[in-house]
Amino acid sequence: MKFAVIVFPGSNCDKDAQYAVESLGHNCRLLWHKDTSLPKDVDCIILPGGFSYGDYLRSGAIARFSPIMEAVIKFAERGGLVIGICNGFQILLESGLLPGALMKNNSTKFICKRQKLNVANNSTAFTNKYKRNEEITLPIAHGDGNYYVSKDEYKKLKENNQILFTYSDNPNGSSFDIAGICNDKGNVAGMMPHPERAIEEILGGKDGAKVFTSIVKNFQGRV
Ligand SMILES: NC(=O)CC[C@H](N)C(=O)O
Question: What is the structure's pLDDT at 120?
Answer without folding.
Answer: 98
